[in-house]
Design brief:
Number of strands: 0
Shape: rod-shaped
Order of helices and strands: HHHHHHHHH
Helix content: over 70%
Number of helices: 9
Strand content: under 5%
Length: 178
């Protein structure tokens, strides 16, 4: 049993280290992977105790190293390659920067102020159509008016918002030039 003990396995691995690396390199196609697998095999033999006697030490060590190498490749295949990482680095970040967020909030606040000046029905129609996506025919039925009235209310609301925003934009430019 001394040949099949873990001590015997470790000694055998150390004695035949170069042979195992050569044989694994041929099988795996990579000397680095072969050395890593033999090293990990040795470490595994340090951590575990024998459960049963081993009949063929070389075959056992080789099979253990092969399994370790396969597991390592499987894990590494989940990682991105250098070229995949490079491709991702070139993807622009579409998230808005703080200045754009502030600008958008300012624009929304301006729109809210413009809508506050609209008559209640016109505002309700505008918000339902533009923000809620409610069809014009549904709005006409809801407000008990003709479809043309809904279209006219939307035109007037849109014109008011455009005019309001232009005036505020002019006023802010005048103030910034002072």
């Amino acid at each position: 049993m001394s040949d099949s003990s873990w001590t015997g396995l470790r000694e055998r691995l150390l004695d035949r280290y170069d042979d195992f690396v050569r044989k694994l390199t041929r099988r795996l196609g990579s000397a680095d992977l072969a050395r890593e697998a033999v090293h990990e095999t040795f470490l595994r033999l340090q951590r575990t105790d024998p459960s049963e006697p081993v009949r063929n030490l070389d075959a056992y060590l080789f099979r253990t190293a092969i399994n370790i190498a396969k597991n390592k490749r499987k894990v590494e295949s989940r990682y991105l390659t250098f070229s995949e990482t490079e491709a991702l680095v070139g993807i622009p970040d579409d998230t808005p920067d703080p200045a754009r967020v502030a600008e958008s909030r300012s624009e929304v606040a301006l729109l809210v102020r413009a809508l506050a000046e609209l008559p209640p029905r016109r505002r309700a129609i505008f918000e339902a159509s533009w923000a809620g996506g409610v069809p014009h025919a549904t709005l006409a039925a809801t407000h008990n008016v003709h479809l043309r009235t809904i279209q006219r209310e939307l035109e007037l609301a849109a014109e008011h918002v455009r005019r309001f925003c232009k005036e505020k934009d002019r006023a802010s430019r005048r103030n910034s030039h002072r």
